[in-house]
Amino acid sequence: MIAPLLVAPLVPLLVPCAVPPLARRAVARLAPAAALWCLTATTVVLAVCSLAALGTLTLYGLLALPPFATLGELIHPLGSAPGLLPLAAAATGALAVCAWALPRSAARQIGEYHEARKAADTQPTAGDLCVIDSPDPDAYALPGSPGRIVVTTSMLRSLSPAEREALFAHERAHLSARHHYHLAAVGLAAHCHPGLRPAGAAVRLAAERAADEAAAAATGDRQLTARAIGRAALATRAARRRPTVAPAATSGPVPQRVAALLRPPLPGVRGRRHLAAVAAGVLLALCACLSLAGAGAGAISLHQSVEIAQGERPGG
């Protein structure tokens, strides 16, 4: 049996398990740009709350041990509530794994980015276009100052002039909307809780769908954009190694994206579709609020328990 004071910090650890089905629903129901922002914000909040909950449980366990209670200037250790020590030990292990995985992931992303920038700097450019002589068809948006569209000569040969412009419009949409920040944030958040890992695929799909719609608007031809993305994906048999945070038109479930482009754009959602879109956003916001409440309540409960153990307030 788990003590009531441990329920609050457990909430942020359980809520992320509801993210995978909600993420899929959000991408299907919300406008792509709205889904991208909603999923990114929710995932980051849940990741931070998950780390805070792990920290709270770890401190609960440590301060229940006499040596650490003495270091914390407690008159007596915190009460060893039922289930406290096993939970604290598990939380400490999970926190250690996060502390090991997060810096490694960040270092890998930064290393991949700098390697790609260095390679791009050695290639000829034409405006924001960086052309790499390679037999492997590939194209992606490389963020930075300035941002560049990296494309191989083989990819250029695989598309017609009109299709190339549609592909470039897609990649420019990634750069102008700074989609790489979303991909980087969700990529790091996935290391904070296993339940957040599927959100990475959902965010990448939302980013690609947002760029698809921007490209269709820029070219004025949804069928041309769909054809360009489909042909580029078919040509990309073995993509070059690209940075994790570099979005590419050929990533994600391309058939699903092409099908969405072949449908007419919705000028506005109404009726049941509107209700479904609102419900998807509300459920994600509810998850974030619930996680924040649990993390906050856990931290407050720990603070009050420490004050009691220190003799600063009655109850000890």
UniProtKB/TrEMBL annotation:
Protein name: M56 family metallopeptidase
Domain Peptidase M48, residue spans: 127-186
Gene3D superfamilies for the chain: Metalloproteases ('zincins'), catalytic domain
InterPro entries: Beta-lactam_resp_regulator, Peptidase_M48
Co-factor(s): Zn(2+)
Species of the source: Streptomyces lonegramiae
Transmembrane segments: 6-23, 35-63, 83-102, 275-300
One Pfam assignment: Peptidase_M48
Source species taxonomy: Bacteria, Bacillati, Actinomycetota, Actinomycetes, Kitasatosporales
